[in-house]
Amino acid sequence: MRIFSGIQPTGVLHLGNYFGAIRQWVELQEGNECIYCIVDYHALTNEETEPDVLRKARRELALDLIACGIDPERTILFVQSDVPEHTELCWILGCVTSYGDLTRMTQFKQKAAEQEFVNGGLFYYPVLQAADILLYLADHVPVGEDQLQHLELARRIARRFNSRFGELFPEPQPILGKGARIMSLADPGRKMSKSYGPEHYVGLMEPEDSIRKKIRSAVTDIGLTPGQEMSPGVANLFTILELVAPGELVAELRKQHREGKLLYKHLKDVLYEELMNALGPIRARRAELSAKGEIDEVLAAGAARARRIAREVMREVRARVGLD
Ligand code: TYM
Known about the structure:
- The chain is mainly alpha-helical.
- It folds into 2 domains: 2-181 and 293-321, HUPs (Rossmann fold, 3-Layer(aba) Sandwich), CATH 3.40.50; 207-286, Tyrosyl-Transfer RNA Synthetase.
- It has helices at residues 15-28, 40-43, 51-68, 85-94, 99-103, 106-114, 120-134, 148-165, 208-216, 232-244, 247-258, 264-289, 295-321; strands spanning 2-7, 33-38, 76-79, 140-142, 173-175.
- The strands form 2 sheets. A 3-stranded parallel sheet has the order 1-2-3, sandwiched between helices. Strands 4-5 form a two-stranded parallel ribbon.
- Helix 9 packs antiparallel against helix 12 (264-289) and helix 10 (232-244) packs across helix 12 (264-289).
């Protein structure tokens, strides 16, 4: 399989990113051809992104990904804007994308509703995402649940291009992991995300006491709807626990919960311990990596490899549409 996925360099890698996507990225390196992209053009759609912050965030994210286990020898790890073919394909694909489809993207609608000035990049965002994937003829895309609609659109765009200009792009399928939907600890009705403020995410590299505090203050007791056995906040803590703790331990805590004997403070303490155990090696590797200064070379080499594929595919795309 050829795997492609992307992540925005927006400052912090959080548990949602890690369990929703990055852990799968790492596992998929075994036996597949993987291409992982730091999507800085996408990050520009966020008006708060300052140039110096973006510049730094791309490198920091690359180091975070390597600490998580992305191996830039085996895998192509690169920055989107180093491969200009992404924006070129984006334009061409935009011309086979339905305007109506773009207006139905829930992420766009949500973001547009939250801000006064809505830039055009935000509207075009999913076309660029489709270009990212299709540029490498990728057939599988490991993502969290929030990206499923964008992937569905990428498939529609691929179909539309193929039917008009001849079969070229595979229809990319999502790969969803067990952590595909991690919710905010402060508001379990929303997904864990950087956009809602620091209390709504837990950073992978955050100081221990800050992580402990966020877990301790996780909301557990908002009301149950009829038929629900567990409040959304508690369910979210169990979801995260299941990703890091041995099965028997989770089963035992679930049993205590069913019997009405589980103290949430205990659940939170166990979660904190197990999470820190799971993240320990990643955090330690990250601390070592920051001492080295080779990340620019690593990313340049990744971009050169990505570009070899992208150039070939673009040559074909140009010929198909009559731009050669
Ligand atoms: P981004 O940068 O918001 O997130 C990166 C990955 O993390 C997943 N994720 C989550 N998973 C579970 N629970 C959460 N709370 C959570 N929050 C984030 C996302 O689903 C994603 O897989 N548009 C993409 C970036 C992108 C891309 C692509 C992805 C650009 N081009 C091509 C795949 C293929 C985004 O903003 O992800």
